[in-house]
């Protein structure tokens, strides 16, 4: 036999003893031996290897070792190679026919590795004795702690000599303290100490210099007097304090894990929705023009002053109603019906405050712009930023929902004040935001993260002045007939109207560069002409724009000079028309959605002007109070109604009723100024933002809306 390892090397064991080096070459296979051979060399050879000793084997016979036998196992483990000598004698026929007796005996067992077992079978004879010894050992281990019979020490080591040391200490001051406790406090304290005892309490008792006073508790008195030692604390008090501290820590960890879990956050979100719906149910019902179900026992107003004001108004209204009922009791029925009809016709329009979008985060930030979502009419985007250079600070863009008027759904932090924003129509999840430093940023409102999706900071053509207005505009693709494409249009104080391309990054092209226009030369009293002023810049700052509702190729642009230019997207070199009528910066222009030939404009010169696109002369001029008019907007339901906000109040104008005064108005809060206005899409409500970060929601009452086709 030959043995090879994994690498193919011959690792067959070699014999350590040879009887004769000149003998024949050893053969592998069966084990043959003669009586003479075993007699001469077998004893020494096998004894050196602890091999089998076999007797009574005649020469000329081969002994075959069956696989699996003990001899085969022993020989295979030792890998003994036995040399066989050639038999020179020739066997006769008589020798071959002779009967031979073969005796098989078992050799001694060879122990290469003997490891006594550590376990005993349960069915063995010694199982009971081993179990008894194990039980005794366990009892010894249990009784060992605190037992004087067991001493831990090292052998061949001299124990140190015991010494007595005395220390003089200060006088121990005893103090009596009392406290009020209840029976359940005592019960809970004792239960805690019994449930969770500390194993080291007994071994760590210190008895040096300790003294205490014993107190006998009274049965009917709940006052317990406790005497404590300042210098030392008993092990029982230490154990109780440790247990209470551990319980407190476990409660804190458990509470923190609950508060940070995702399921708990989702449950809080739903609970917040339910609470907001319960609190604002009457207001939301009035906003959606649904019947309000009032509960006489519940006050639904979020403000105490507003609730008191509302109760006072209701009280006065009830008194007036009772007086009217008393008067009507003495009037004939026919006359009474005519009076009721005239009263219904004379009831003036009014604005009723419902609620305000405001929180601690937006407090102190001025509302610069507002925009409704194109897909969700209940989602409102509000931009917060200052209009003046000295008042600049970090801006906000918040998305408010009707489901929670007290906290925004999304909050986007901006490094500079937000001056304009708008939702996309093709992709309602995209919100474009313009800031005071001239950058344009696009956010994804579906994402909970406040990181920007795209930013114009890397664009080489970005604006160098504040972006006063931006809007997503759908325009025809022209002769290709591929439908409409949506582009983002911006106007900035650097005198450029740009169209932004949304690809891997934001980049823009100029639609128009607003050039300054020369004013008409006026003659002095002596007949001389006034000299022209030297222009600092050849471009006029753009303030606002609005695209035509039917033809998106034309748009109006208001400038800081007070001029309004009519422009075309296909012509970027010159204006189609210029309307001169304002003496200050034009803050807003708006086409009439029904009468598409007319448009409104408001300015810092305290006026609102109604224009016709075919005439450069104003049709009507509206002035209510001497204050800046910051924003205007046409009603989406009527041709004649529009809203305007100046510094002190929000106004509703109805041209079918009066062209001199607004039909109704609402004053701003003390210290606040209105900055922007927005009509609700589906209801008769109005939103107004102010300089304190508050967006007030008003309901329009008794405003007769004529048919929209009446122009």
TrEMBL record:
Any single Gene Ontology cellular-component annotation: dynein axonemal particle
Protein name: Dynein axonemal intermediate chain 4
Pfam families the UniProt entry points to: WD40
A biological-process GO annotation: cilium movement
WD repeat ranges, renumbered to this chain: 579-621
UniProt xrefs under PROSITE patterns: WD_REPEATS_2
Domain of life of the source: Eukaryota
UniProt cross-references to Gene3D superfamilies, sorted A to Z: YVTN repeat-like/Quinoprotein amine dehydrogenase
Keyword line: Cell projection, Cilium, Cytoplasm, Cytoskeleton, Flagellum, Repeat, WD repeat
UniProt xrefs under SUPFAM superfamilies: WD40 repeat-like
PANTHER family noted in UniProt: DYNEIN AXONEMAL INTERMEDIATE CHAIN 4, DYNEIN INTERMEDIATE CHAIN
InterPro entries on file: Dynein_IC (IPR050687), WD40/YVTN_repeat-like_dom_sf (IPR015943), WD40_repeat_dom_sf (IPR036322), WD40_rpt (IPR001680)
GO molecular function: dynein heavy chain binding; dynein light chain binding
Keyword Repeat: yes
Cell compartment(s), UniProt: Cytoplasm, Cytoskeleton, Flagellum axoneme; Dynein axonemal particle
Biased composition (Polar residues): 223-235
Organism taxonomic ancestry: Eukaryota, Metazoa, Chordata, Craniata, Vertebrata
Region (Disordered): 197-235, 296-327
Chief location: cytoplasm
Entry keyword annotation includes Cytoplasm: yes
Biased composition (Basic and acidic residues): 308-327
């Amino acid at each position: 036999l030959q043995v090879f390892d994994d690498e193919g090397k011959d690792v067959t064991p070699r014999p350590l003893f040879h009887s004769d080096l000149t003998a024949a070459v050893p053969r592998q296979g069966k084990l043959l031996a003669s009586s003479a051979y075993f007699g001469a060399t077998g004893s020494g050879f096998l004894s050196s290897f602890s091999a089998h000793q076999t007797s009574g084997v005649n020469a000329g016979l081969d002994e075959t070792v069956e696989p699996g036998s003990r001899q085969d196992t022993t020989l295979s483990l030792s890998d003994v190679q036995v040399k066989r000598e050639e038999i020179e004698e020739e066997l006769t026929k008589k020798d071959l026919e002779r009967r031979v007796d073969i005796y098989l005996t078992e050799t001694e067992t060879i122990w290469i590795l003997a490891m006594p077992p550590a376990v005993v079978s349960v069915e063995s004879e010694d199982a009971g004795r081993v179990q008894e010894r194990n039980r005794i050992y366990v009892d010894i281990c249990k009784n060992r702690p605190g037992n004087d019979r067991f001493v831990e020490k090292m052998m061949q080591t001299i124990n140190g000599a015991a010494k007595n040391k005395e220390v003089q200490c200060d006088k121990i001051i005893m103090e009596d303290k009392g406290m009020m406790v209840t029976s359940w406090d005592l019960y809970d304290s004792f239960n805690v100490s019994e449930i969770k005892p500390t194993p080291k309490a007994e071994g760590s008792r210190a008895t040096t210099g300790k003294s205490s006073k014993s107190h006998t508790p009274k049965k009917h008195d709940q006052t317990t007097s406790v005497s404590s030692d300042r210098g030392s604390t008993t092990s029982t008090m230490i154990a109780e304090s440790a247990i209470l501290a551990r319980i407190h820590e476990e409660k804190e960890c458990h509470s923190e894990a609950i508060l940070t879990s995702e399921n708990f956050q989702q449950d809080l979100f739903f609970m917040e929705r339910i609470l907001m719906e319960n609190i604002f149910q009457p207001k939301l019902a009035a906003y959606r023009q649904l019947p309000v179900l009032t509960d006489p026992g519940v006050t639904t107003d979020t403000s105490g002053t507003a609730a008191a004001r509302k109760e006072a108004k209701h009280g006065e209204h009830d008194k007036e109603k009772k007086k009217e009922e008393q008067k009507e009791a003495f009037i004939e029925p026919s006359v009474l019906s005519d009076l009721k009809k005239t009263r219904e016709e004379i009831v003036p329009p009014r604005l009723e405050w419902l609620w305000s979008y405001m929180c601690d985060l937006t407090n102190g930030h001025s509302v610069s712009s507002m925009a409704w979502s194109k897909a969700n009419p209940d989602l409102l985007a509000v931009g917060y930023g200052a209009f003046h250079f000295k008042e600049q600070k970090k801006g906000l863009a918040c998305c408010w929902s009707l489901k929670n008027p007290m906290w925004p759904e999304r909050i986007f932090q901006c490094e500079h004040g937000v001056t304009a924003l708008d939702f996309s129509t093709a992709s309602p999840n995209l919100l474009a935001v313009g800031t005071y430093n001239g950058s344009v940023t696009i956010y994804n409102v579906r994402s909970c993260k406040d990181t920007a999706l795209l930013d114009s900071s890397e664009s080489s053509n970005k604006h160098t002045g504040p972006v006063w207005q931006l809007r997503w505009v759908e325009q025809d693709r022209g002769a290709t007939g591929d439908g409409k494409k949506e582009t983002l249009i911006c106007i900035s104080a650097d005198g450029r109207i740009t169209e932004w391309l949304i690809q891997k990054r934001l980049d823009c092209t100029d639609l128009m560069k607003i050039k300054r226009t020369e004013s008409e030369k006026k003659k002095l009293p002596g007949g001389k002409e006034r000299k022209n002023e030297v222009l600092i810049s050849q471009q006029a700052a753009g303030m606002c724009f609005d695209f035509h509702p039917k033809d998106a190729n034309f748009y109006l642009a208001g400038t800081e000079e007070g001029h309004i230019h009519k422009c075309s997207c296909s012509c970027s070199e010159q204006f189609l028309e210029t309307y001169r009528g304002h003496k200050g910066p034009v803050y807003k222009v708006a086409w009439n959605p029904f009468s598409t030939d007319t448009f409104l404009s408001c300015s810092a010169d305290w006026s609102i002007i109604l224009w016709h696109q075919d005439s450069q002369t104003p049709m009507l001029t509206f002035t209510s109070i001497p204050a800046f008019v910051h924003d205007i907007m046409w009603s989406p339901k009527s041709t004649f109604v529009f809203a305007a906000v100046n510094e002190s109040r929000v106004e509703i104008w109805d041209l079918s009723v009066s062209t001199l005064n607004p039909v109704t108005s609402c004053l701003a809060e003390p210290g606040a100024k209105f900055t922007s206005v927005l009509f609700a899409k589906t209801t008769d409500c109005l939103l107004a933002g102010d300089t304190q970060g508050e967006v007030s929601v008003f309901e329009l009452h008794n405003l007769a809306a004529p048919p929209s086709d009446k122009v």
